[in-house]
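Lab notebook, bench 4. Still working through the backlog of constructs that have no structural model yet. Next entry is a single chain of 319 residues. Request: give me the structure tokens for it.
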Amino acid sequence: MHTDLVAALDIGGTKIAGALVDGRGRILVRAQRATPAREDGDTVMGAVEEVLAELRASALWSGATAVGIGSAGPVDASAGTVSPVNVPGWRAYPLVERVRAATGGLPVELIGDGVAITAAEHWQGAARGHDNALCMVVSTGVGGGLVLGGRLHPGPTGNAGHIGHISVDLDGDPCPCGARGCVERIASGPNIARRALEGGWRPGPDGDTSAAAVAAAARAGDPVALASFERAAQALAAGIAATATLVEIDIAVIGGGVGKAGEILFTPLRAALRNYATLSFVQRLTVAPAQTGTDAGLVGAAAAVLTRTPATTVAGVGG
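Model written out:
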């Protein structure tokens, strides 16, 4: 019998992953479906229900005490709804209520995917042992989450720490979110690639125009590719320094596809951070790559349930 067994869902525009996770963060059972992102909301929910049905068919399911959900956002944990940008059929969709119904009434905890990865990194990854941390996911978009005072800090709606939409360039490019000069508009993978192409970088014979291809070119010494990564690093450094100045974090963890670029990103990032994080209380700030890998969303969704305070177990219930 596993104590502290919880169900976890990691919901994104490409896949819906589910797992039964124990109190040590081990995945014991897993299930997955492709996200029917172009379909209507109930069809998407059908895929979630299939994942849950597969988990419920396990002999271990009877030990599951709650469900943690990390979802692409925006999410609204206070209302129990999700409106993922890349799943148009879900707008203010009552995901918590539907998951509770599909699991026989288990308590459900909803957080954004950036917060979920933060929970995973704090529990088992690069932020372990740090009481005050920012974790970032830098890929197609830029998300994040905060650990403050040793606890996950999702905020009232589950979106706190969304560093991708801090403005770091007052007169910068318009961002799809409506603001200007956001970290995401400069540092996300597609924007790194866009800037390199605009600067004259050309892909190799395979035609690959991804940020990973730009990173490979930068490693080979291409000046335009290097400059695009340096600009991304500068934007990340400004956002990280602003966050550290505001809430006194001592580590920033960077995951996602762009985070895998290695020193092409981290060397200019550390250099830029010295220029922005200048006050005495932020000078010891370190930057590290994420460690939890592809299961971070599931492990983090489980962590959000396993580490919460008893009073917040279910609205209106608990100690």
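Notes after review: The mean pLDDT is 93. The chain has nine helices and twelve strands. Flag for follow-up if needed.
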